Amino acid sequence: MDKIVVKGGPALHGEVKASGAKNAALPILASSLLADGKSTYRNVPDLVDVSTMLKVLRTMGCGAERLSETAKDVCEVTVGAGITPEAPYELVKTMRASVLVLGPLVARYGRARVSLPGGCAIGARPIDQHLKGLKALGADITLTEGYVEARAERLRGATVNFDLITVTGTENVMMAAVLAKGRTVLENCAREPEVEELARVLNKMGARIEGGGTSVITIDGVDALHPVEHAILPDRIEAGTLLVAAAISGGDVLVKHAVPEHMEAVVLKLREAGCTVTTENGGVRCKAPQTLRPVDVTTTEHPGFPTDMQAQLMVLLSVAQGTSVISEHIFENRFMHVAELHRMGADITIQGPTAVVKGVPKLSGAPVMATDLRASASLILAGLRAEGRTDVQRVYHLDRGYERLELKLRSLGADIQRMKA
Ligand SMILES: CC(=O)N[C@H]1[C@@H](OP(=O)(O)OP(=O)(O)OC[C@H]2O[C@@H](n3ccc(=O)[nH]c3=O)[C@H](O)[C@@H]2O)O[C@H](CO)[C@@H](O)[C@@H]1O
Ligand SMILES: C=C(OP(=O)(O)O)C(=O)O
């Protein structure tokens, strides 16, 4: 098992490229199931989660591979006869986003058997809204032996009003509705750029979707879709993490390909903290201030401040001059990084869904344990600023969602290495 070792101190400078977005790549790969033939995707990030999704597709009988070692960002998914519409527990337990095959499978094959994902370190994460949407489209849903079984002759268009805003729920039901008979109206949808991107890809495949990226999505079902070629959009969370790396290290970094319109809430908070954030050369640049200012933030659905950037911003604020208040309103248990940050000298108190972060003049390096994906990134960011050496264990969480973060940070001047734990 690997660990990441960071020696704090160097200010990061230079340019770095954002990779393709995990949260766009996963539903888009799953959407390949909706059409026979070969779909080709470019700018696919080299992540464990993407490999898991390719494995899920192969387990069902699809061809699903990265093109070659030299064109690692290109993935081909080929769908033909003989698909087994099942996603087993062994794979779903390693990546809950595997549940994204449920909608496409029931729409296309009339049946699906997908392991229930269960919770994870950040919360319970039920999928009741996915199931509510599929039921409204006419799927017969049963839960047996830890699996969701869905059946339908052909799905029928319907109106679905989600009880809460869910990203993968919106995506799953949208993918199901594209092949349903008639019109589906999805209300209270997630408005994340990745949902909009999925709608764009489905339309390229021949679907008729309007309103992707808004809270009401209208889908006129079609009889069949065709495969697609598409380049995955840049990862706004990875880009945000790299901007925080610039800010916390006292540096100045341009994240190329970062899309400013996708990152407005993060950019606003970095500016409130005193950073100079500008859009230039097709990217976003962040220059650290002399002194970081405290900032209050509440995580909400897009276009609000993303929960996937909460841990990283918290680390930045842990060395600001003053007290910040961070409220987490998406996941009930997303402060697992706090206990590890205490070990590095941070002064953070948790009161229910709120963390009160009192800025300290310095952090000190320590051995720490990553508990989830963004917690891992936050501990590495803390290590960039800390005096001495920080060993971040359990890096497999990081590898789910960051494409060799340590190499990107090293290219900017960080003293960081991957080692055997
Ligand atoms: C692969 C992917 O895109 N992952 C993202 C997606 O996860 P994911 O789609 O799983 O997150 P959701 O938007 O569904 O979850 C939002 C909230 O709704 C709850 N909920 C969700 C569905 C449901 O049926 N019932 C229910 O109660 C969840 O427990 C959570 O509290 O959006 C999250 C919120 O922006 C991000 O942190 C994840 O990075
Ligand atoms: C929570 C995340 O991902 P997932 O939904 O894949 O667990 C994340 O990307 O921070």
UniProtKB/TrEMBL annotation:
PANTHER family, A to Z: UDP-N-ACETYLGLUCOSAMINE 1-CARBOXYVINYLTRANSFERASE
Annotated Enolpyruvate transferase domain residues: 7-408
Name the UniProt record assigns to this protein: UDP-N-acetylglucosamine 1-carboxyvinyltransferase
EC assignment: 2.5.1.7
Binding positions (phosphoenolpyruvate): 22-23
Reactions mediated catalytically: phosphoenolpyruvate + UDP-N-acetyl-alpha-D-glucosamine = UDP-N-acetyl-3-O-(1-carboxyvinyl)-alpha-D-glucosamine + phosphate
Record PTM 2-(S-cysteinyl)pyruvic acid O-phosphothioketal, positions in chain: 120
Keywords: Cell cycle, Cell division, Cell shape, Cell wall biogenesis/degradation, Cytoplasm, Peptidoglycan synthesis, Pyruvate, Transferase
GO molecular function: UDP-N-acetylglucosamine 1-carboxyvinyltransferase activity
GO cellular component, one term: cytoplasm
Enzyme kind, highest EC tier: transferase
Record: active site: 120
Function: Cell wall formation. Adds enolpyruvyl to UDP-N-acetylglucosamine.
Cell division as UniProt keyword: yes
Highest taxon of source: Bacteria
UniProt record, GO biological process: cell division; cell wall organization; peptidoglycan biosynthetic process; regulation of cell shape; UDP-N-acetylgalactosamine biosynthetic process
Annotated binding of UDP-N-acetyl-alpha-D-glucosamine, by residue: 96, 125-129, 308, 330
Locations listed in the record: Cytoplasm
Pathway: Cell wall biogenesis; peptidoglycan biosynthesis
Family stated for the protein in its record: Belongs to the EPSP synthase family. MurA subfamily.
